[in-house]
């Protein structure tokens, strides 16, 4: 029963994903979200708004700072989790070697 429920949920998510993808405008079309007024504003006003000479740096550190902070937090958490798991398995391996040899 649990597997049927899981497959039903995954199937529903697949349908949502496929229907969302079908609504995306083709690349290069004017209705594409990458051609909206935000990108025009960033390129025209970023130097004046932020004082940064580099537009990319201005966007990452000023306009999208909270988003960048969130991405950095996710990356740090992932690295910490992997490091902890490597440390546990490394420590466990040393302990087993000592039991076999000692």
Task: Please tell me about this protein's structure.
The chain is mainly α and 102 residues long. It has a domain at 1-29. 79% of the residues lie in helices and 0% in strands. The protein has four helices and no strands. The chain has helices at 2-22, 37-50, 55-63, 65-101. Helix 2 crosses helix 3. The longest helix is centred in the C-terminal third of the chain and has 37 residues, at 65-101. It is flat and about 70 Å long. The mean pLDDT is 83. This is Multicomponent Na+:H+ antiporter subunit B. Residues 32-82 form the MrpA C-terminal/MbhE domain. InterPro entries: CPA3_Na-H_Antiporter_A, MrpA_C/MbhE. Pfam families: MbhE (PF20501).
Helices and strands in order:
Layout: H1 2-22, H2 37-50, H3 55-63, H4 65-101
Helix pairs in contact: 2-3, 3-4
Mean pLDDT: 83
Percent in strands? under 5%
Question: Taking Cα atoms only, what radius of gyration do you get, to the nearest Å?
Answer: 24 Å
Terminal-residue CA separation: 49 Å
Count the DSSP helices.
Answer: 4
Contiguous runs where pLDDT drops below 50 for at least 5 residues: none
> What is the helix content?
over 70%
Shape: flat
Structural classification: mainly alpha
DSSP E strands, number: 0
Order of helices and strands: HHHH
Largest sheet: none
Protein name: Multicomponent Na+:H+ antiporter subunit B
Pfam family, one: MbhE
InterPro entries: CPA3_Na-H_Antiporter_A, MrpA_C/MbhE
Domain MrpA C-terminal/MbhE: 32-82
């Amino acid at each position: 029963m649990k597997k049927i429920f899981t497959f039903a949920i995954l199937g529903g998510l697949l349908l949502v994903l496929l229907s969302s993808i079908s609504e995306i405008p083709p690349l290069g079309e004017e209705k594409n979200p990458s051609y909206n007024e935000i990108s025009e504003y960033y390129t025209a006003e970023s130097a004046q708004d932020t004082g940064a000479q580099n537009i990319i740096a201005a966007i990452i550190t000023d306009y999208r700072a909270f988003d960048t902070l969130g991405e950095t937090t996710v990356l740090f958490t992932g690295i910490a989790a992997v490091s902890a798991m490597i440390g546990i398995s490394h420590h466990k391996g040393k302990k087993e070697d000592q039991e076999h040899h000692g």
